[in-house]
Fold this protein.
Amino acid sequence: MPDVSAALELYLDPAAERRINVLWNALAAVEVQTLRHVSPRHRPHLSLVGAELLDPVPVAEALAGIPAAPRLPLTYQYVGQFVGRVLFLGPAPSRPLLDHHAEVWRRLTAARLELSPLYAPGSWVPHTTLSMRVGRPALTEAIRRCLEFLPIDATVTGAAVVDHKRGIRVPLP
């Protein structure tokens, strides 16, 4: 499976972003390394697609005519864990969110951009990553802390192509 260090990230309204930042602090208090601790440049987001490399210009060209970040309402309702003890918050998968994701995927793959199959329609799990690896001793407490914050209502308010390996963050309309 290729490394996924680049993404089209959707950003949340200020109130939701603040709430997730407070959750990140609560997780840090129980010794869980959050994304912000991996890099202070990380901010709460939902990754629409992921890839090993992602260049902003071809992404913007492929998405011409549609907003990368339509004002989609989200409700984070659950805490989840991917293999490797990756901890995340999951929004309810609404029809508008799934339709937008499918259209973005269609356009980017039609433009021959190489995307991770983990983000393909039917495989993609909408999520906001909290930690890339929660140690076993802290896992139960981390989940308990997350549940104290749910539900979180949010609205998508922005998007950017982000490539963490190359230090790229380019906002999209």
